[in-house]
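Narrative summary of target 7.
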Amino acid sequence: MKIRNLAFLAIPALVAVLAGCAGKPDSYYTLASPVAAADAAPSTLGSAAPLYIELAPVAVPERFARPQMVVRQPGGSVQVEVLEQHRWASSFENELRDALAGNIAARLGALDVTKGGRQTSQPVWRIAVQLRQFDAVDGGRVDASFSWTLRRSDEARTVVCQLDVGEAVGGGMDAVAQGAQRVTAAAAAAMARSVSAARANPAATACAL
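Modeled conformation, tokenized:
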């Protein structure tokens, strides 16, 4: 009888332990962030010269092509961690494309027509982005390197741009995600400036940020 009572006592304890392990929720993050009113441009839609952008899928290094957050060990370590319980809201490359496209469009007053929404007779600025490097260190920094090309659909010229950008971050994955948001927003701002510069100078082939 005593053995049976001990067994009955042990079962609820075991269930509680298993529930505690299984119940730890995953955390989900986004790279998208709102554009400040001072940085947003009025919509060009309905004007004599509406502005359309088309952002191609972002090329990212293979190790980042996943929903899990990937962080580097501090102290210059070559090791990285793939964090199963800290994830982007979608795969990293999709999060990055959506965040860049939304931010660029807001800063230019443009419409992102990547998924359609314009007549073929209307010119569009095509932006192709490559993420060359993305280092995130918990309690350290988020550093990224971007390159991109600009081409208006009815022009032959191509403008090539590059940007290195970084942000110091505090400890914890929330701080790392916020740093990644700021880095993404800074890259989008540079891309928007490059489009504005290319529009202002139709002969330019060098990137102006």
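Strands lie at 27-29, 52-55, 68-72, 80-88, 111-112, 125-136, 141-152, 159-168.
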